[in-house]
Amino acid sequence: MLKAGKCAGIASGSVAGFTLLEFLVVFLLLSVLFLFALPGFGVMIDRSRVNSCVEEFRGAFFLAEREAVRRKHRVVICASVDGKVCDDGYANGVKMDLSGGYIVFDVEGGAVIRDYPPVSGVGMFVG
Questions:
Q1: What is the value of pTM for the model shown?
Q2: For residue 96, how many other CB atoms are within 10 A of its CB?
Q3: 3-class SS of residue 97
Q4: Which of 66, 80, 90, 108 is the most buried (most CB within 10 A)?
Q5: Backbone phi, then psi, for 104, in 5-degree steps?
Q6: By the 8 A CB rule, do 15 and 9 touch?
Q7: β-pairing, 111-116 with 102-106?
Q8: Could you give the CA distance from residue 125 to residue 79 in angstroms, rounded to a whole number?
């Protein structure tokens, strides 16, 4: 059972809350804080994308190494636009442009072990 003394403030007409001015001041301070934090957040997202691509490429190297040991012959990582065959750049000794995608390829078996599609938004990936 409630006593009248505990609810006296509410019963008398005073209401707890924020005024419009207090809300606007807090909103303005948070807006300024986010304004300064936003460029750093974009850099963090870009760095995360690059790290993700590097880890994917590292995984391709480990896959090629593991498959070469398992199959007991040569397995390569090469540029591939269609994901089925190595591009001519690899065969001619020219720099590989991996921005169009690359594959882990079994040279003697002529089979694609894994296809890695092009990466968007990271920039040129040339090796």
A1: 0.61
A2: 19
A3: strand
A4: 80
A5: -95, 120
A6: no
A7: antiparallel
A8: 10
